Amino acid sequence: MRRIFALLLTLSLLLMLGACSSPAETPAADPTTQPAGDTPAADADPDQPAADPATSGSLADGVLSVAMECAYAPYNWTQPTGDNGAVQIKDSPDYAYGYDVMMAKHIAEALGVELEIVKLDWDSLVPAVQSGTVDCVIAGQSITSERLEMVDFTTPYYYASIVTLTPSDSTYASAQGVQDLAGATCTSQINTVWYDVCLPQIPDANILPAQDSAPAMLVALNSGRCDLVVTDMPTAMAACVAYPNFTLLDFSGSEDDFQVSEEEINIGISLQKGNTELQEAINGVLAEMTVDDFTAMMDEAISVQPLSE
Length: 309
Known about the structure:
This protein has nine helices and 14 strands. The protein is globular and about 55 Å long. The longest helix is centred in the first third of the chain and has 19 residues, at 2-20. It is an alpha/beta fold.
């Protein structure tokens, strides 16, 4: 009996020890072996960089920053008030208006962003858009091959033929073509097709140094420092309002006109190289407009331009 009782006691102890032990086949779960989808952090990849707002387009801040001279009527000019819908110039108490401002307002409204006008010298416009200081330049720029090497352009937002301005009492006032301008003392604005391409076509021309701006060019003509200037049609039309003593000579359609390529009379909006998102957005707005729309807008700009700046 004693042996049987001892045997039963031993078996009972073994069973109790087995019940208190963890089975070797079921080890505690190791968190490092859990599938990523089973962890709370599965929805966020720590190796994926956060989105950079700067890469989502130049209008990510809700502002279209546009550079222009604000001194090139009727495309753009400076005025002391917000009359006619003028836009205040950044970091200035003055306002900008003209065809370029009207177009910039139209584009900004269509894109649902605010408009910022930045006033820069003519030679500073391309560097500003290259560096990304501004989103674009709307300043009466011709879409030339030289500029296309530095910046991209939208489709044209105006088409400007080349004309000549001379005083009404000038010996050149009756000229019928470029050859009739032979021997004239002339000038135009720096870094333009007018100065670089057109003036050299005048036989025996006495070409003066280029002027820093369109207003300076017109002052040179009005003061008698030159016989004539070459410019585009809108600038000449506006000049004839401000200077009634000027005569506009338009040789277009004749065999003796200035020889320029189509790209040199197409006026576009310049943007930083590779900014296709903004380029396509602006092109979409321009595609909804016609040449008649451009002309009507330019006529309005000329009608409200100040007589002097």
